[in-house]
Amino acid sequence: MSQQYLFEILKKSKNSKARIGKIHTPHGIIETPTFMPVGTAGTVKSLTPEQIRSTQSQIILANTYHLSLRPGIDVIKKHNGLHSFMNWNHPILTDSGGYQVFSLAQNRKIDENGVTFQSHIDGSPRRFTPKSVIDLQCGFNSDIMMVLDICSPYNHPKKDTSKDLTITHKWAKEAVTYWKNKECSNWLFGIVQGGFFKDLRKESANTLTELDFPGYALGGLSVGEPIELCHEFIDYCAPLLPENKPKYVMGIGLPENLKWAIKCGVDMFDCVIPTRIARHGQFFLEDQRINIKRQEFINDLNPLDETCDCYSCKNYTRSYIRHLYVSKEILASTLLSIHNIHSLQKCVEKIKNEIINE
Ligand SMILES: [Zn+2]
């Protein structure tokens, strides 16, 4: 495999499986572990790229399903890719769209070669195959692309989860073969599935490891299961993947989950939670979520978090941000999103520093 898919491990913790590393991508180096804010439709909601960078975010996630339906691949190709389309000249990871096909699309029909569905926007028929989602992501010029997979729901019977997994593995093989022939500089990550069955997860990790992806994700977690079960499966699955490749848990973003995953040896995470709760007036404070609407903040001249050095905390009071929120001013979402993403990055940085100082 080409040297260009370079992942360096700089230090391993003595107390856990945590590690500090660097992923080299066409749009720069990502220092890991790292949290990736979600910009589903080519925008991290309410933030400009400069504001996203101010939160110390290095890479953002965008979504193949959404972008391929709207504005469509041709518009993005006219901009020479997603980076210039959205004016973000740093690494981008794109989810394959597999998850949304199962959560959003109507009348989807899976066969062993791909999935046919109706757009949730206009009902038009669409088809995703393992190869077509790579073509789409290459058209976006995504730094890290994800394979098409089937995300089995929580409480899915084992027999059905196993069937999903067989198709996921077939697609993974087609995807990696297609990608290797392209010899492109975009990374491709395989996605471990298998629901909440350890034997299936192990089989999935082994199958994907044999396919020799440059990086791996754990999918199908944080899909409604109890948090203890999610943690148990991160703990079980992460060590099954090759030590020398980046490991990514999809869809987690609460401070306690990040801390847990990092200790299990996970390098990357993404979640809509910091920006979604911001739009509902909530901000992170010492691992808690506080609502800015509270009466007690009317005359509170303190920042959201006294220990935080984000743009919002350096420049605005709780009183002002509360005023914006109750007045339904859109700046409230921006300021709370900046703080929430920055808080998660700080949380990761604190763990990194603990490892460095061990
Ligand atoms: Zn802050």
Structure commentary:
The protein is built from 14 helices and 16 strands. It has about 350 residues and is of the alpha/beta class. The protein has two domains: about 260 residues, TIM Barrel (Alpha-Beta Barrel), CATH 3.20.20; about 90 residues, no CATH class. It has an eight-stranded parallel beta sheet. It is globular and about 60 Å long. Zinc ion (ZN) binds next to helix 12 and helix 14.
Summarize the structure.
The chain is an alpha/beta fold. It is built from 14 helices and 16 strands.
> What is the mean pLDDT?
96
In CATH, the homologous superfamily of the largest domain goes by the name Queuine tRNA-ribosyltransferase-like
In N-to-C order, the SSE pattern is EEEEHEHHHEHEEEHEHEHEHEHEHEEHHH
Sheet with most strands: strand arrangement: 4-14-13-12-11-10-6-5
| Overall number of strands | 16
The end-to-end distance, rounded to whole angstroms, is 34 Å
| Rg from Cα | 20 Å
Beta-strand content bin: 15-25%
CATH topology of the largest domain: TIM Barrel
Second CATH tier, the architecture of the largest domain: Alpha-Beta Barrel
Which shape, going by the Cα principal axes? globular
Indicate the structural class: alpha/beta
The distinct ligands, each listed once, are: zinc ion
Largest sheet: 8 strands, parallel
Low-confidence stretches: none
- Considering DSSP H and I runs of 4 or more, what fraction of the residues is helical? 40-55%
How many helices? The count is: 14
Number of domains in the coordinates?
Answer: 2
